[in-house]
Amino acid sequence: MAPSDDLVYMAKLAEQAERYDEMVEAMNSVAKLDEGLTKEERNLLSVGYKNLIGAKRAAMRIIGSIELKEETKGKESHVRQTAEYRRKVEAEMDKICCDVINIIDKYLIPHSSGAESSVFYYKMKGDYYRYLAEFKTGTEKIETASKTAQTDLTPTDPIRLGLALNISVFYCEIMNSPDKACQLAKNAFDEAVAELPSLSEENYKDSTLIMQLLRDNLALWNSDMADDADDIRERTYTTGAKGDPAAVCSRTQCSPIDILIHSPSH
């Protein structure tokens, strides 16, 4: 019996008992065996963390609503207590998110066995960056990290591309700024495409996978903005309002991306 078998069994047992902290602990131990994860093991890890963070996010929504009500009532002592409790839950969320990102960066991506698992890990990592962004005012830190990556890393470096992916999703989903998200994603993609001839074989798989994710997001966001523009146009025709609804799309230079990324010939 492989060392991971007992741990996987315990993870499944913990899942049935809805003890997700123990489920995550077991799957983290599997990840640290440095053997890579099977599809089943990846899903177990994801489910465990998703339930852990889901409970914290639900608690944050409830606490935030209560805090707002207490502020409206003018009960300062209750506001202070609620804010302190919120910060406690935020710290717990922060630890969960940082643990996930650390496991992915240190153990999972380096031992990824193929395209499917790599994409799974990058998407999962992006999810937990977004959960962090829900309660952290991290725009300045994010932009500083981006500038550092642009200075120190090549456009095709998977770390730089991964950061661009996470930042663009942050601006689209958290900051509600699809224009800026498109601009960031398109710039990162175009710069990487220009440097593809010099991309090392070592980084080829990870870099091109993230480029595909950037391209997929661009297509999705452009489609969403086009739909929004159509909705505005319909309302404009109905109400007789003035203005050009197409400006919603024209504010950004996000044209459809049709470039195909080919495998290296060497």
Quick overview of this protein structure:
With 266 residues, the protein is an all-alpha fold. It contains ten helices and no strands. The chain folds into two domains: 136 residues, Up-down Bundle (Delta-Endotoxin, domain 1), CATH 1.20.190; 84 residues, Up-down Bundle (Delta-Endotoxin, domain 1).
Task: Provide the structure class.
Answer: mainly alpha
Largest sheet: none
CATH superfamily of the largest domain: 14-3-3 domain
Terminal CA distance reads 40 Å
The ordered H/E elements are HHHHHHHHHH
Low-confidence spans: 239-266
CATH topology of the largest domain: Delta-Endotoxin, domain 1
User: What is the oligomer described by this structure?
Assistant: single chain
Q: Could you say how many structural domains there are in total?
A: 2
Determine the mean pLDDT. 82
InterPro entries: 14-3-3, 14-3-3_dom_sf, 14-3-3_domain
Function: Is associated with a DNA binding complex that binds to the G box, a well-characterized cis-acting DNA regulatory element found in plant genes.
Pfam family, one: 14-3-3
Organism: Oryza barthii
Present the secondary structure layout.
Blueprint: H1 3-16, H2 20-31, H3 39-73, H4 76-108, H5 115-135, H6 139-152, H7 158-174, H8 178-194, H9 201-239, H10 247-250
Helix pairs in contact: 1-2, 2-3, 3-4, 3-5, 4-5, 5-7, 5-9, 6-7, 7-8, 7-9, 8-9
Protein name: 14-3-3 domain-containing protein
Family: Belongs to the 14-3-3 family.
Pfam families: 14-3-3 (PF00244)
